[in-house]
């Protein structure tokens, strides 16, 4: 094969459309990618957080909030498959070429944030291993911050290795990691249920002062899963078939999230029953694994799960950055965001509550990205009738240039959606029932449809008048 014509070794920039002969991800590669992305310590942790709604509430929230998020992911994954560009490049069609820099910047920051979150949780595992093997203090003990810094350094080196060659190295990491994380999930599920009956877990109730409202849990779970959506086209653009781009991610993401959130739920509740204390701050898998006595092997697997999840996070962050500037190559961008994420991971060591920071981070995701997804989906499927021109996505003064590179209608609707989230999130009805995230997505989509149709009608009318005057 002529190596000059072999695109499979290339990492494409955000706006470059991936040709058919460079699409190397098969159906089961995509399933493995999204199992690896969701079967991790972050999913475990969020399961423990929503355990504050008790067993029935947490299972309800998990079964409702996440499939909706992954339907949204499949819809955008299909756009990436058809157009061949990254998710943030797709926003050029709706927000304008320059307008897309806003979601791209937000996306880069959120995936760097996710990397930091997962790295911090994995560094806790490293600290427990250092305690067991070397006698060093673990996280939460006097002197534990030094051990955590060692853990952060170890994880950052693993992350650099996982994204060294872009989507190809990510594919290898996911293939290796998926089996290990599933074994760990089965292992902990068996251990918890051997020590505590499912009946006791199902009947447990959290203390009144630590009970989480159902709507708040819905927002936490929705934001957790929606956080993956901006990464979807980074992978579906390399998918070989439509099913690879739509069905495969939903299978992998739902399967892994249901299972590992369930593990987090029963593990946290089981520990609360055993110790008599429910503290969602200690729902991280390292603490639970340590208290369940699963040992260093389980902690090592947790470290691997962080690597598989963060490979996807870093891929999305780095490629999003190339939508803002062409001065950085895709691989350089991947390395840059990895280094920045390592620095950000240190910050929680100086905060009073990691849990509080985690929930604020999820609120940020739901607030800014829910409206973006609504606009992108409505724009592609209903305004442009499933037809984006990949070449025009990079065309100055082309069809996606709008007004000096900005689609003011999309930006105005997005701001409206953000404000609506801030208002609805505090209303008692939404706090106690369905949350604000999905109602705001529906509202934003409806507003954009109306505004974009009016914008198109006005453009058609002005064009007709100009033609008439010219005649």
UniProtKB/TrEMBL annotation:
Pfam families: Transp_cyt_pur
Taxonomic superkingdom: Bacteria
Membrane topology annotation: Multi-pass membrane protein
InterPro entries named among the record's database cross-references: CodB (IPR030191), Pur-cyt_permease (IPR001248), Pur-cyt_permease_Fcy2/21/22 (IPR026030)
Main location class: membrane
Transmembrane segments: 44-62, 68-90, 111-134, 146-164, 176-196, 216-235, 256-278, 298-322, 334-355, 361-383, 404-424, 430-451
Subcellular locations according to the entry: Membrane
Keywords, ordered alphabetically: Membrane, Transmembrane, Transmembrane helix, Transport
Record flagged with keyword NADP: no
Family assignment from sequence similarity: Belongs to the purine-cytosine permease (2.A.39) family.
Entry protein name: Allantoin permease
Organism: Sporomusa silvacetica DSM 10669
Record lineage: Bacteria, Bacillati, Bacillota, Negativicutes, Selenomonadales
